[in-house]
Amino acid sequence: MPDTLSKSFIVALAGQKGGSGKTTTALNLADAWHAQGLKVLLVDTDPQGTAQTWRDVMEEHDERGPTVVSMSKGFHHDIEQLAAAYDRVIIDCPPGENTIQRAAIMIADLTILPCGPGATDIWSMAETFELIRRARMLDPSLKASVLITRKVSNTVIGDQAEEMFKSLEFPSFTTTLGYRVAFQESPNAGLGVVRYKPSGSAAREIKALVEEIETLYIKTTLQVAS
Ligand SMILES: Nc1ncnc2c1ncn2[C@@H]1O[C@H](COP(=O)(O)OP(=O)(O)O)[C@@H](O)[C@H]1O
Ligand SMILES: [Mg+2]
Asked: Where are the domains of the chain?
């Protein structure tokens, strides 16, 4: 378990495109950190309320899990005070809008940008990258990293797409999420993949992502702050 629990670390899942994996990544990070014994708050800012529904399903199954709150525009005014009681705060953003995404990016210690594995997926990130660029004009220290999702197992990403990811001005996580049924099935059990199928490939990937975030971003950020 991480030893720096005194300050909360805020992660935003952003991106204009629907279906890129924001909510899937948000639920699974929240569930994985909760399973490590950390106090986790998942903020559902999407009017579709998928994260909130996932929490309701969890309760129906008598499972314990992270705290989930639904919030809309203006949520950033409340979040700092709320966040103080948690080790990890995860903000799941709605697609196709700017206001909430901009606020989440500004408030987050790390913004994760899930992106499918193809060239067209990367092209569709242009508007989101512009949001990050503009946010960085206000705060140059903002951190953002691309997460490649829905990668088909046992194949490499096409050479061209791989080159495109490498040449982006934003880093990509070494960890990628494969196209896996466990990501689709686990919400219906009110779980993340780490608890749904602990020895499966999806669980391995989420644990690796947690480890990468802890090592690259959280340890340095929280040490600097303390
Ligand atoms: N790695 C994955 N493997 C298989 N299905 C996935 C994966 N990531 C997301 N999905 C599925 O794709 C759909 C959209 O994902 P979601 O996380 O809701 O995207 P977003 O929140 O960005 O709109 C969901 O049905 C989800 O189950
Ligand atoms: Mg979503």
From this structure: 9-225
Tell me the CA–centroid distance for residue 13 and ligand 1, in Å: 13
Q: What is the pLDDT of residues 25-39, one digit of tens each?
A: 999 999 999 999 999
150 close to ligand 1 (CB < 6 Angstrom)? yes
Report the C-alpha gap between 81 and 119 in whole angstroms: 40
Residue 113 near residue 17 (C-beta atoms within 8 A): no
Q: Is 114 left (phi over 0), alpha (psi -120 to 50) or beta?
A: beta
Mean pLDDT for 121-145 is 96
What is the reported pLDDT for 153?
Answer: 66
Residues 178-207 pLDDT 10s:
999 999 999 999 999 999 999 999 999 999
Q: Is the CB of 54 under 6 A from ligand 1?
A: no
Q: How many CB atoms lie within 10 A of CB 28?
A: 30
DSSP class of residue 218 equals I
State whether the beta carbon of 14 lies less than 6 angstroms from ligand 1. Answer: no
Take atom 27 of ligand 1 and give the residue whose Cα is closest: 184
Which one is the CATH code of 9-225: 3.40.1280.10, 3.40.1390.10, 3.40.50.300, 3.40.50.920? Answer: 3.40.50.300
pTM of the model: 0.94
Ligand 1 within 6 A of CB of 20: yes
